[in-house]
Amino acid sequence: MGRMDGKTAIVTGAARGTGAAIARLFAEEGARVMLGDVRHDLGESVAADLGVSAVYQPLDVSRADDWDAAVGRAREIFGRIDVLVNNAALLHIGSIEETTPEDVERLFRVNQLGPFLGIRAVASAMRETGGGAIVNVASSDGVKGMNGVVAYASTKWALRGITKSAAMELARDRIRVNAVCPEAGNHEMSAPFLPPGIDSKRAAEFNAGQLLPAPEHYGLDDHVRDVARAVLFLASDDCPTATAADLVIDGGLTAGYIQPGLPGAEGGGSRPR
Ligand SMILES: NC(=O)c1ccc[n+]([C@@H]2O[C@H](COP(=O)([O-])OP(=O)(O)OC[C@H]3O[C@@H](n4cnc5c(N)ncnc54)[C@H](O)[C@@H]3O)[C@@H](O)[C@H]2O)c1
Question: Is 33 part of any domain?
C-alpha cells in the first residue's frame, strides 16, 4: 500500500531536479501527479517516464492565468486536488551592488509570488473536498544568512512567512501548510554562477554533508532523495499534526559553527573546514 494512495498532487518545477524527484516518489507511493514547469520538453518526458499516473502541464507559476488553467485541468482529470508542492524557483548569485532591481523582481515573481498564487488557486478546490496539504520548498538560505544571495534568500525567508500565514488561515478548512528547507538540490541551479574550476556537484555534496557522521556515504542524489522524502512526509497522512512547520534538511549546516579550542571541537563534524 502506497503512502499517497488515492491522492492527487500538483508539483511545480517538476521538469528536473528536486521537483522531478518529488513527483517520482509521489507516483511510486500511489499518487496521481500533475507536473508543472516552463521547460516543456523536459517536463513532458519526465511525466511520460512516470506513466499513466502522471501528466505534464505548462505552468509558469508567476502567472495567475496559468494557475487557473492548471487547477481547472487537475480538477477535470483527477476530480480533486489533495496536495500542492510549491517547488519551482530561480536562483541568482551576486553581491548586493551587483544585483539589479530586475534580478530581485524576477526572483520575487517566481519564488514568492508563485507560491502565493498557487496557494490562492488551490484553496477552494481543497476546501470543497474536505482539506489537503501544501508543502513549500524553501531553502536553508531561508533560515540563515549568506553573502551573494540577497535576491534568493529574501524570497525563501518570505516563503516561510507565507507558509505560517497560510497555515493559520487555512486550518479551518483542514488544509495543512508546511515548509521544507533543504541545503541540497540540483547542482545545475547554482552551476552557472560558480567560478570556473569549481565542481558544483562536489560543492553541493560538501555543504549538505558537513555534520553527517559518514558524509562520504551520501551523494547529491541521496540528499535530494531525502528532501523528496521530507516533502512526502508532510504531504501524506504520515504526520497529520504538522502544520506551519519548517522541516530543515541540511546535514546540520544551519546548526551553528564548531568553535576551535572549546571542548567538543575535536570530534564535532566529520569534515575539515
Ligand atoms: N539547487 C540547490 O542547491 C537548492 C538548495 C536549496 C533549496 N533549493 C530549492 O529546491 C527547489 C528545487 O530546485 P532544484 O534544486 O531542483 O533546481 P532546478 O533548477 O533543477 O529546479 C527548478 C525548476 O523550476 C522550474 N522553474 C523555473 N521558473 C519557473 C516558473 N516561472 N514556473 C514554473 N517552473 C519554473 C525550472 O524549469 C526547474 O525545472 C527550489 O525551490 C530551490 O530554491 C535548491
Answer: yes
Look at residue 200 and tell me if it is in a domain: no
152 is catalytic: yes
Q: Is residue 160 part of a domain?
A: yes
Number of structural domains the chain divides into: 1
- Tell me the β-bridge partners of 35: 11, 56
C-alpha cell at 266: 575535536
Of 37, 42, 156, 254, best ligand 1 pocket probe by most atoms within 8 Å of the beta carbon: 37
Q: How confident is the model at residue 58 (pLDDT cuts 50, 70, 90)?
A: very high
Q: Which domain holds residue 132?
A: 8-189+223-248
Mean pLDDT (whole number) for 130-153: 98
Nearest atom (ligand 1) to Cα of 18 = 16
Q: Is the pLDDT of residue 97 over 70?
A: yes
- Pocket of ligand 1 contains residue 113 by CB under 6 Å: no
CB of 239 closer than 8 Å to CB of 233: yes
Q: What is the CATH number of the domain that holds 184?
A: 3.40.50.720
* 215-238 pLDDT, tens digit each: 999 999 999 999 999 999 999 999
Nearest to 122 by CA among 76, 165, 167, 67: 67
Please indicate, yes or no, if residue 203 is contained in any of the structural domains: no
- In angstroms, how far is the first alpha carbon of the chain from the final one? 44
Predicted confidence at residue 257, as pLDDT, reads 87
**Which of the residues 56, 152, 218, 257 is marked catalytic?**
152
- Which backbone phi and psi does 149 adopt, to 5 degrees? -130, 35
